Amino acid sequence: MSFNRLQTMRGNIEAIRTAFRLGVEKRGPSAEEMEVLGRYAGFGGLKCILNDADSLMDAAKWSKSDIELFAPTVELRQLIREYSKDDREFARYMDSLKTSVLTAFYTPSPVVEAIFDTLKANGINVNRYLEPSAGQGVFVDSFMRDYPGAEAMAFEKDLLTGKILDALHPTVFTRIEGFERIEPDYKGYFDVACSNIPFGDFAVPDPIYATSKELAYRQSTKAIHNYFFLKALDSVREGGLVAFITSQGVMNAASPFVRAELVKRADLVTALRLPNNTFSDNAGTDTGSDLIILQKHSGKTALSADEEFFVQSVVDRDSNAPTNKYFAAFPQNVICTDASVGTDPYGKPALIYKHSGGVEGIARDIRLALDESLKLRLNKELYNSQGIKPPTPEPIDTTPKPKVTATQSKKISETPIMRQYTEMKKRHPDAILLFRVGDFYECMGEDAVKSSDILGITLTRRMNGKAGSIELAGFPHHALDTYLPKLVRAGQRVAICEQIEDPKQKQREEFKPTEVITPQQKPEVKSAPNPKTVEPTPSPTPVQSEPEPTSAPKESTREIETDGSPDYNDNPDPRLFAYNLFGELEPIGKPQRQPRQSAQPKNDDKPKPSERPKVEISPKVQSKFRQLTDKELEFYGSLNWDDNPPINGFYETMMSIAHRQLAEREAARQVAEQKRQDAEVGIEITRTEGFAIPKPDVAESEDKPDMSPRPFSEDIQFFHKNGSMVVDNGQVGFLSEVKKYGALFTPLALKSEQEKRAMLYITLSETYQQLYHYEAETHEASEHLREHLNQYYDEFVDKYGNLNEKQNAKFILMDANGRDALALERGENGMFVKADIFDHPVAFAVDEVTSVDTPMEALSASLNKYGVVNLEYMRSLVDMGEEKLIECLGDHIYYNPLVENYEIADRFIAGNVVKKAEDIQAWIDRENDRIKGFPGYDGIEPYIEMAQDSLKALQDATPRKITFDELDFNFGERWIPTGIYSAYMSHLYGTNVTIAYSSSMDEYSAKADRGNMKIWEEFCVRGYYRTYDGMNLLKHALHNTVPDIKKSIGKDDNGNDIKVPDSEAIQLANIKIDEIRNGFSDWLEAQSPEFKERLVDLYNRKFNCFVRPKYDGSHQTFPDLNMKMLGDRYGVNSIYQSQKDCVWMLLQNGGGIADHEVGTGKTLIMCMAAHEMKRLGLAHKPMIIGLKANVAEIAMTYQTAYPNARILFADEKSFKAENRVAFFNNIRNNDYDCVIMSHNQFGKIPQSPEMQQEMLQMELNNVDENLRVLENQGKEVSSRMKLGLLKRKQNLTAKIATIQHQMEEKKDDMVDFKQMGIDHIFVDESHQFKNLMFNTRHDRVAGLGNSEGSQRALNLLYAIRTIQERTGKDLGATFLSGTTISNSLTELYLLFKYLRPKELERQEIRCFDAWAAIFAKKTTDFEFNVTNSIVAKERFRYFIKVPELAAFYNEITDYRTAEDVGVDRPQKNEILHNIPPTPDQEAFIQKLMEFAKTGDAKILGRAPLSETEEKAKMLIATDYARKMALDMRMVDPSYEDDPNNKASHCAKMIAEYYRKYDAQKGTQFVFSDLGTYRPGEWNVYSEIKRKLIEDYGIPAHEIRFIQECKTERARKAVIQAMNDGDVRVLFGSTSMLGTGVNAQKRAVCIHHLDTPWRPSDLTQRDGRAIRAGNEIAKLYADNKVDVIIYAVEKSLDSYKFNLLHCKATFIDQLKSGALGARTIDEGGMDEKSGMNFSEYMAILSGNTDLLDKAKLEKRIAALESERKSFNKGRGNAEFRLQTITHDIANNEATIGLMKADWEKYSKVVQRDNEGNPINNLTLDDCKLTDEKNMGVHLQGLAQRVDTHGMYQRIGEVYGFPIAIISERALVEGIEKLQNRFVVDGNYKYKFNNGYIAMSDTHAACMNFVNALEKIPGIIAQYEERTAKLKADVPTLEGIMSKKWGKEDELKQLKSDLAALDRKIQAELAPKHDEKDSKEVKTNTQQQQPGKVIEVNPSSQSQSTDDKKSMVAEPMDYYAPINNVKSVPRISI
């Protein structure tokens, strides 16, 4: 049966309605309701339900194919709204619908039944079943049918589906939540997990997996399908099965990681590839899927051949489609009857499998294949034994064994404990044996593996001689109550054996009862008794047992018996003395071997029950190791491997001894309490026996303290964590299981002196934690706590020594907070000294400035302390009167009456000065009015006078008002009131349009009071699937987007539409949207002057109001700066004025941007600003972060400038894992002047989880809003866009869940950034952090970068937001870079997002789209691709309102070039070195052009392009062109060297400069990002080096590659060698050599072998030589550095270089504010997609005229396509007008005829007194004229007559004939005959649609008169319809009369093209001659190799025409030189 969408929709609605009703009535479903619920099939394949369906008007937006589902969709939404409690719940239901549409494709029942039936047929008994993604429960249905009574748990995340699932299966444990919410208790619980799982790169919010130490678990949370497999394997027991249907992507994925992880944990039972039509009938979709069945097998050691195949994915050679090697090996596992090559849903090649037998045939073949696989590969023994394999009894070997000597002791294969464990295991082979060893229950071997898997405990392996290793797992004895029920619940039998003595000491066998718990009963484990109330019971007196002889005595030399000394197997060199807990040496007995004793004969049979074994204990054995004291036993016994591990080998040994001796004491109590325990546990217990030797009871004092674990009696503090050492009720101990509400306290057994030391330490540690926390939170000093901290510390040091002394440090580190405590001391000059926190607060600044030298310093101090100008405080600092102080400060301060105080000039005359001036003017006017006419002196007069001075200063600083004519308006700018948009659109559409804006969602909404032809016709685009009317296009115009219109180009193999973008419709929509947007400016222009003035004022007040203060830092003296050391080390003898000004700006603003060119002293600015902030108290603890290559130099510069400063520099050792915590504590606890580290190290600092959660939640809210926006836009949302946002939403949700989990569990106890007290960050080379995440709906716009951003940038944002949150204002950081804008002005938004979030919000900019709406213009270029198809290319090409944008940037920025600063550095002498192409390059250029035309990759000698590569064809072509230009061997190594290639030219130029500056040892840099150095491979670097050595004789050691430097030391050595002249030529890439290399001392030339994409990269390259300190260039090269750009003709070299210069020009002009224009054109360069096809072809041809021709042709083609779309739209309007005109004429004719009928009827009709018509009916065949008989006759005619579709007369009424007609119709599937009656006039009139009443004869007869009475109403309807049609005629005529506005432009372009064609033909024609003309020769001569072109600096001036846009087309950029071909001028 085919998929019926309408039927499925109806079934779904009824099922949802039933489920809602059952929920309200709180009852179970009836049989009929169960049937209704069972018809629910989900909404997969019903994407149209996401369309707008709120009103009937929305139906117009639905496509023809979906319109039948419009009414059901409206019904569905109304149903959900009725049953929703509120809007929030309704939104949740709608969200579940969205997810269901994209993911819910339910499996056909026959397929599922085939799986479970086959499992059952193969003997698989299932008791516990897991369904992790249940849907409506088809898997659950099949399972319960085959396994009735079994336990089942089903998960379903979708709310609606979950309700139906719950109602359908009341006996199943249904959980309406995600599978990730399953509790850890269910680990290893289920027998089988079977489902159809979701697939996709969606993150799963499972914090336990996300934070797991195992990589596989962490990776699985990033892809939901991988997560389901691993989680399900964890959830099933050993031997259990996981059977999942999943996408083919699991087995086809190129990465084998997941498949390898699966087969490491489980055996592959089978994998079946299902046909693509498996889901066709059920969900209406064809998709490939696989059935994968795994059997959990944790202990496997190798992979089978099948599993090796399973891991490998392959690509089919013929079809290029991915598949899996498993199916190549087992083709019978592919279920299909037909296979073909097609494409998957993403358009990539795929193998398409079909099955002609439908679902039943598919199920039949699955049964056969699955049955065969289960018989071959299913391990039934493993499944039935649940992973437990009974040990095979070893045969008794009676042959003598060779004597084992002491040197062979390591080869013992079994320890005594293992032998005892093995013996007990043989008695209970099917149970997990819990073996009591000391305070632990241990498991070994297979039991350990299973226990660790079920309980989640750590699995370890212990080396065991020649046996290899043995698995061990265990848990503390007190956790038995927790773990025992889990084992039983997992279906395991458990045997508990209490071991009383170390078997090494056994002389006789002692048996003790062991509990065996069966899983049939739920254990009721009693709680641990309180040790205080239980007295130890003496052990019974041992009774000697009679030994029984055996026939085969045991060989005495079989093993070496050992004494009771500690087991030193892991430490073969024991000491005679060992350290105790406090580091004190205590003697221990030297290890002695126990003399061998002859084996006692014994019987292998069990002892008789009546006999009790008797044990003799040798005094020698007892005395081998001293008995530990009670406190030692308690302390060492508390150590364990789970949560309190020993810290070294000594503690491990003592733990082992203590556990053994504790076991002896435990024996007596266990024996006495056994009987009572049996009764309390209440579970089945069988008795068995084990080895044990009771020890004599140790006398205990009656007042022994309680040493058992117990709840902690005090409140949990913020510093408490697992392992914290605390005091509870006078006892010292540790905390575990720390939660917010409590913890478990475990006492420590300590000696008296040790206990005193521990208590003093704990008091000291807790006092420190409280002190730091209090001061960090309150910013108030606590002298009381500090006094106590000093007191406790001094006392501790006096008594026990420094905290960091060895004997104390070991003990302190056992405390979880120990590292914090050790950081209370720091090492100085070989001694430990107190940290700063002992003297003053380190979490905030407390230094009180008491005196200063100048008024300016007093001003800075006042700003620091009070945040305002406090004159009284300032007078106290400088001892100066107020008037004198104000006079000295001059224009540095101004009186602000609004705050009634003075403000600093840099703050007062800054920011929004317009608003400030208006407010002050209002204050002056108000005060003048108040004192007007006042006779006396009010006292306000001086303040008014000062305010007027301040007002004048503001007015003088106010920016020039921008006039209306200068403004460029964007339709949709958020600052323009929506009322203006509403008025414009009402004018344009001719109806009232209301537009609203939601700032929180950044979303416009629009509605019209009524529709008209403007909306339905003129501004309407009809696509193949749906219609986009004027309101829809209006929303796109407001948001500056274009609808994604699709059309069908045919059907695929499955009968589905093949959808492609409808370029014509998209272009037409773009034209209409542009008409709306562009018409807005024209409409504004036509408004009144008053209206324009108000709009201009609004703009100026909003944007043109910012003033950047003139920061003058000349007064600064920098008192701590050591100029002498700076001069000696760096040659810095004075501070630039620019550096002083920049530092002053940073001090006043609290941060900003230092946008200084390379080499202008940014490093020193950073150091001075940081130190001054610290000195003046403006920052307490600044931090500098820089590039790894630079950070050491920054630290050295800081230390040189400020030799007495205390800086903390993070070297590589500081951030090693073992040192990181101590380093972070060092930052936190000390008051450093500055902390310096690299970018990478900064990224390792944990950020505040609260801040992370807050910001990620904000991003998640934005994603939710964007999801809603997509729906509200009214466009057909593509599944790609929907899935992209859903994926990001799930990823963010998972991150938030992980952070929340870490916060709750307090797992990450490391100091985070917020706790370090850092309050200002200096970010050197800040452009490294530009990849910050942002949200945008412009998903198709090129050049925006990755909106997801990088984690590095996100970490910096967290840190800056932490500082901003603390200060409550913007900035808080300083960005330093010479390339703050590296490629595009869109990067400005990210800078503002970092530093100015509050100011952006004031401008109503809350996201990137809002910013772009104001300052950017998006262009949509329609270009022809290589297939001559028109494609749309969108990008933000134009930037408007540039001066205001620049002012906003410059307000916090100090921008300086080297010329501005006056840096004594060389000038750049740019040289373009043109190189003719080699013959090989000429030939390859032709191939490239052919490839660009055809896309045939074989032309280039490579494999055909894949589907993905096909889309990136031009990027591939561009990349080939770049490689070709560099060297042909980059394309193919088989090419040979050419003496005229770029490498040869470069080598020649390098050699020339080498010889020229040989005496001065001049150095050169060579840059190339292509062909970088790789050892052992051919590369351009090595090739040029070879030429330099062989051809020019340059020594090899003088030529180096930066890539050779693998360490920082090697890098520094090469740099130093460059400065010394030992290395003369240095090669490198932009990333490795472009930054952090100060090797300019001797640089004379820079060579650019290639051109980078970004202007900033070129700047960084040039900055290596063009910087201060270049001595050779200054003295010997006229203070110039030659920069040579190598460009191969007919390549992209010159083109890219020109583009780069153009872009760099306007970026620099924007920064400097030198732009005359208000608009910038960035051009169309796009590094992501390569060049445009036509430009590419023209450039490779080598004819620049062809490039101009290509541009003209491109523009003409776009205009002609636009004209075609316009004419098509006008043609539609013309057809519509013809139709309407015809309809009007028809209607008017119809009205005339109907009026004639009415007039005829009115004249003859007879009426009664009430005006009702009297019936005048006569029937031809009825002689009776009474009404009753005529009615019966008519009813008979209606039932019997058949006119065969013809009208047949039967009578008349008032002269009008009446007739009957027979029609056939299907009623409920049966054809029936229906007769209808009409009155025949000019038209046929009917009443009740022609049907007569069959039960009322009077009504039957009146039918015809009633039909005639309806004529006036019909006439009125026609007249109304005609009037509406006539009203539309003028609109359509207006459309018809509208002319295409670009006809003249098109004609001019065609004329220009014709002229250019003539020019090209004229130039080309002479080439056929033999160069007869000298003129032709001049024009066509070739450049000689090596000729260069020097840049003419005077030609770089920019046009100053203000009215022109800044277009990237510099005039005469390169001057032609004789005999050298000029470089083409190229505009972008």
Describe the structure.
This protein has 2028 residues and is an alpha/beta fold. Helices cover 43% and strands 15% of the residues. The chain contains 70 helices and 59 strands. The chain has a seven-stranded mixed sheet, sandwiched between helices. A seven-stranded parallel sheet has the order 38-39-37-40-42-36-45. Strands 48-49-47-50-51-46-58 form a seven-stranded mixed sheet, sandwiched between helices. Strand 18 and strand 19 form a beta hairpin. Helix 54 runs antiparallel to helix 56 (1513-1526). The longest helix has 61 residues, at 1744-1804. The two termini are 58 Å apart.
Keywords:
2028 residues; alpha/beta; 7-stranded parallel sheet; 70 helices; 43% helix
Strand content: 5-15%
The number of helical elements comes to 70
Which strand order spans the largest sheet, edge to edge or round the barrel? 3-2-1-4-5-7-6
Proportion of residues in helical segments: 40-55%
Q: Mean pLDDT, rounded to whole units?
A: 75
Low-confidence stretches: 390-413, 463-467, 500-513, 520-624, 678-702, 1273-1280, 1422-1430, 1724-1731, 1966-2028
Shape: globular
Nearest-angstrom radius of gyration?
44 Å
Specify the biggest β-sheet: 7 strands, mixed
The structural class is alpha/beta
Distance between the termini: 58 Å
Task: Provide the fold topology.
Elements: H1 5-25, H2 31-38, H3 70-82, H4 87-103, H5 109-121, E1 128-131, H6 138-146, E2 151-155, H7 159-168, E3 173-175, E4 190-196, H8 207-210, H9 215-220, H10 224-235, E5 236-247, H11 249-252, H12 257-265, E6 266-274, H13 280-283, E7 289-296, H14 305-311, E8 313-315, E9 322-324, H15 325-329, E10 338-343, E11 349-354, H16 358-377, H17 380-385, H18 416-427, E12 431-437, E13 440-444, H19 445-455, E14 460-463, E15 469-476, H20 480-489, E16 493-498, E17 515-517, E18 577-579, E19 585-587, H21 619-622, H22 630-637, H23 649-681, E20 710-711, E21 725-728, E22 731-739, E23 742-747, H24 752-778, H25 783-800, H26 806-812, H27 818-822, E24 825-828, E25 831-834, H28 855-866, H29 871-878, H30 882-889, E26 893-896, E27 901-904, H31 905-908, E28 911-912, H32 913-931, H33 941-957, H34 978-989, E29 993-998, E30 1003-1008, H35 1013-1018, E31 1021-1022, E32 1027-1028, H36 1030-1039, E33 1046-1051, E34 1057-1061, H37 1063-1085, H38 1089-1102, E35 1106-1107, H39 1123-1130, H40 1137-1149, E36 1152-1156, H41 1162-1175, E37 1182-1186, H42 1188-1201, E38 1207-1209, ...
Helix pairs in contact: 1-2, 1-3, 1-7, 5-6, 5-16, 10-12, 22-23, 24-25, 28-29, 32-33, 34-37, 36-37, 37-65, 40-41, 41-42, 45-46, 54-56, 54-64, 57-58, 64-65, 65-68, 65-69, 66-67
